[in-house]
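notes to self, project folder thing:

trying the whole complex as one job this time. last attempt i did each chain seperately and stitching them together was a nightmare. two parts in total, labels are on each line so i dont mix them up again. if this works i'll redo the older ones the same way
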Amino acid sequence: MSGVHVTTTINGDAVEFVCQPGEVLLDVLRDRVGLTGAKEGCGTGDCGACSVTVDDRLVCACLVLGAEVEGRTVTTVEGMASGGKLHALQSKFIEHAALQCGICTPGFLVSAKALLDRNPDPSETQIRYALAGNLCRCTGYDKIVRAVQAAAKELAVDATKAAKKSAKKAVKKSA
Amino acid sequence: MTTDPSFTNQTFKIIGTRVPRPDGLDKVTGRARYGADASAAGQLVGLILRSPHAHAQIKKIDISKAEKLPGVKAIITSDDLPDLVKGKRDMLDILENCMARGRALYDGHAVAAVAAIDAETARQALKLIKVEYKVLPHVTDVDEAMQDNAPVVQSWVRTTGNPESNKPTNVCQVSQFGHGDIEAGFAEADVIIERSYKTEQTHQGYIEPHACLASVGPDGQGELWVTTQGHYTFRTQCAQLLGMDIAKLKVTSSEIGGGFGGKTHVWMEPIALALSRKANRPVKLVLTREEVFRGTGPTCSTSIDVKIGAKRDGRITGALAVLRYQDGAFPGIWGMLGGMTAWACYDLPNVKAIAYDVLVNRPKVAAYRAPSAPMAAFAVESTMDLVAHQIGMDPVDFRLLNAAKEGTRASYGPTYGPIGIRATLEAVKNHPQMKAKLGPNQGRGMACGFWFNFGGQTCATINIGVDGTVNVSVGTVDVGGSRASLSLIAAEELGVSYESVKCTIADTASLGHNDTTEGSRGTFSSGMAIIFAARNAVNELRARAAKTWDIPVEEVEWKDGQACAIGMQHNNLEPLSLAKIAAKSPRTGGPIAGHNETVADGAGVSFASHICDVEVDPETGATKVLRYTVIQDAGKAIHPDYVEGQFQGAAAQGIGWALNEEYVYGKDGRLQNPGFLDYRIPVCSDLPFIDTKILEIPNPGHPYGIRGVGETSIVPPLAAIGNAVSNAVGVRMNHVPMSPPRILKAIKAQRAAG
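result (full assembly):
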């Protein structure tokens, strides 16, 4: 069986790989690209431990073929922090003890980011339903939901600050 | 979320603070390496062929075609795993569970394994292995397995305990616990309630499947990277099963993606090592979720009868439980543990538990968080509610009246020291949830739970760097934040900052034997070893200060992280900090370290009481948990966040067990739901916030008063929810899980009965 050559963008970097036609994105990421942050908990799309985004759409990497990401943009947990600065979700997960064993954490972070990107101010119920595709066996979800709430709050403060700053700049410019 | 420290008389500087965990950054960035995240140059992919039959004789395994497939490097069957542990039946059981020896004993039992250059080749090779089976009669239900005409799972098994038996049977052990005169107790009672209960089999459900990377060379040396709760135990078991020298097998525990008891003994690790040895290449073996369900874990299904007799004033006069636990296809002690824990919450004059361990054609049962206690608690605590109702007493008052206390002779033998059961019940009584109003179709329940705490063999090493930072090496694995707790303990004891301590889980070559991280022992026992190791390091630090000052060591004391000279003649000497002494260490005698190797005695028992409010939809039978509170005695909460996390996680597992989770076997003895879609564990939208209250009743057996906290809170939920659902629907629920069909059936039966 001959491989498929794929050109794609992963966490902002141009990446090329060759994979088998039947090989799932999760195996490509883990075994060919060397990004082991996404985990296989089930291989059937039930646990969400392999959550990544493809062109900003949240997917289970175990249900997407590697060949399908040709020309697309893939983001994994490894792409969440910018340089030395953690994403608010990452720092709130640590601060709120939202992980115990941590195997589900990458999936939760990617899913929670996808939620906050489209709904910056979710209710508790919206958070719980948005994360219902991610299984955690350690925490009972309590501290995870609290961490997402805290991150949403922090991101809202950051957004307000940024808006004020740019408004100030605009005022200065117009003056 | 509250902590009541009023029972504690110790004061701490940093113990009890909510510091960030040291492995947090790695775990939120995807950098942390779990079982399946390691690779080696030239590694092969290992896969396992499993029996599709519940019980079958393996007449022939033909590997000739598979062997010829290009890319296949090794195939093994039980022929490659000879019995090297002659006479040690428990070890042979583990080996036979890893790979069937002549007979497949359950659906999913491994029969052969292959190592190939890639997954696709390995999959093809599995298809080319031809196994000839002769299907045998099977039994999967615990009550059926105890009948005289039941198929016998293991022909060598005889009943031990009382009564002993010399004929082949599925009852491998009968255990009895208790004291007093049970018949006299029942004769004295004004009210007697007798009920039967069933609980179904559940899996630990850790999100990380079993995974390992094995490498063995022809020189007999090997390495194993593995997700495990006990890498030292894995080393011993693998070495003994494969005829290797223990010292020549180095086992490194990866980050562990959950275990809950399911990663306490070997499953496929000896297979990976045997494949590697045969192929002379590293082999990576990762189980699929289906394999995890069919071939690992789970806990027992049970059938339990409970009889309680009480006076009108609420005093229990007699208590009897008959417990039948299935251990899967190999003998275990799970029924025995159920018998020991059943009545442990109460102070009873006449009490008895008779427990049966029974074999069936299901996977070998493994520990699952407070193993065996939740089922016994379901039966006992449900009956407790019925008795309270019958005599018209509040269920909490009824339990308080009969609760065990310091000096109570436990039903399983020992006499209790200071314990927390009454304190948890008082806290339940005073909790606002108990007074909150309930709506239509809603019900409230509460229940108590007990679990032991294990100590065991433990080592710790503390190495102090020349910059005054501290390395702590331990041999218990970090399942839920223990590196943070253990760093806090080292920092507290040495008087240094939390940030200056780095805690590492040592591999088997770097530290002496440590027992498996089970029985809620991680923080308890490694914490104890660290305290003693730190005290040894402090003695050395004092000696170095004495040497620097040229005074006798007896005149140096350790205070707040520094050496202070005592006595009038030394009062002009500036105290020497740990960092200052460490900086001078190359010239005062070399590296400064402290070690401790111990059997951590003094484990204390732990109790929890839970409150649960539910709403049951009478049309669908679906139950929603509206509010849930966990109250548990922690001894001393080293890191309250992770203590709360244990309470909440245990409660959530219990909720899943109570309402949904269940192994479903077909008539053919095959597991019908080996995946997370059909075996549904609680998801985020199923649960409310889980409130917690930490009580701190110090364990006198530990220098800091620590009790294990990890397991106890999975014990009450089955019963707490059972009581809540029963109160909501007006029918006593006696079968777990209380899934919608079971609840509907119970409601309909009640209606039909009028």
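what i see at first glance: Chain A touches chain B through 59 residues (CB under 8 Å).
need to look closer tmrw
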